Amino acid sequence: MLGATGSIGTSTLDVIARHPERYRVHALTAHRSREPLLALCLFHRPAVAVLGDERDAAWLRARLAEAGVATEVESGPAALVAVAEAREVDVVMSAIVGAAGLLPTLAAVHAGKRVLLANKEALVMSGALFMEAVATSGATLLPIDSEHNAIYQCLPVEHRGGLARHGVTQLLLTASGGPFRGWSPERLAEVTPEQACAHPNWSMGRKISVDSATLMNKGLELIEACWLFDARPEQVQVVVHPQSVIHSMAAYSDGSVIAQLGNPDMRTPIAYGLAWPERIEAGVEALDLFRVARLDFEAPDEAAFPCLRLAREAMAAGGDGAGGAQCGQRGGGGGLPGGSPRLHRHRRAGGPGARCRAGPGRARPRDRTGRRCPRAACRRDPAGEPLTPMPFQPDSRRRATWA
Predict the structure, then answer these.
(1) Which residues lie across from 177 on neighbouring strands?
(2) How many angstroms separate the CA atoms of 187 and 182, rounded?
(3) Which residues, including other chains, have CB under 8 Å from residue 35's CB and lie 6 or more apart?
(4) Are 312 and 233 in contact (CB under 8 A)?
(5) Sheet of strand 257-261, all strands in order from the earlier edge strand to the far edge
(6) Are the C-beta atoms of residues 234 and 402 closer than 8 Å to each other?
(7) What is the DSSP letter of 377?
(8) Of 287, 280, 263, which is closest to residue 15 (Cα–Cα)?
(9) pTM for the full predicted model
(10) Is 315 helix (H, G, I), strand (E, B) or coil?
(11) 3-state DSSP assignment of residue 172
């Protein structure tokens, strides 16, 4: 269990605890949350526990020894990789937030495990490399994000090689719209991190809550969907669905649209991933359609929330996706963190140029020519002409529509 103390981790352990005859916890990991990890170790008695820092590991080691629990305690990135590829492990839940989850998740893939992927950054950062490793290692990859898990359930068992060959015309990725749905750009300039973390439907960690409020999370999910389902960016349509009852859909060439519905509870996709191709009880209340009563849909406002459009353009352009984790960690002051990447546009002196998504402390992406952006220097483009920075302005003419 990579990321045992977060919302996905605790939900996974809740499902596992309901089926002691089927599952046993081998390893639990956390970054700094040593007290919550102690409580989990006392309850689940894993063989191994991993923390990010050796001082925290020493503290946990002492507390477990006092309690008479024989769990081995390790620390650091190498220990994460070791538990992910351990021979005793059949299933790895990848729920570490951000870029830190890439290496242990990739190790689990190379080791041929069943990988339950709740860390979308792994695919955003290393999509082609990651999917190639899945194909060559014999690993089983099951998406746990509710939207991608829903699409997985709506698609044929074998869906690689392009959607068209399987009769799929479009993937419809639903989004609740977050706490700021319908807000104007002027109103968004005054929001607080606390408001951004108050999601109307889901209970999540702070980073993913902020990413959801800005639709950055949905942009990352669009990229993830392209890699998972071998789709082109234009084949993935984001649909705002405030009730979060339909978790996503797949449209077919015969006019059919297959949807997966359920209450907004992450234990449903987690249980699906754990038991696939079987089904097990997850502790989730059955969906009452009479109580739901109505289902609404609307197009996302990409002028107010440009992160979604930028993610689509990034996927179409290719290149690396580093820096998304850092963007979501910012926003300590007021104002919508949707502008937190400090996006800017470069142009040739006297003419339009390519966008650069680099910001302070972020990896510099490549433009369409393969050249690294010089970021602050921004001296010359590939043709040798001088470049001058200009503030980024969202293009309000490009709005997503769904019909």
Answers:
(1) none
(2) 10
(3) none
(4) yes
(5) 236-240, 168-175, 246-252, 257-261
(6) no
(7) S
(8) 280
(9) 0.78
(10) helix
(11) strand
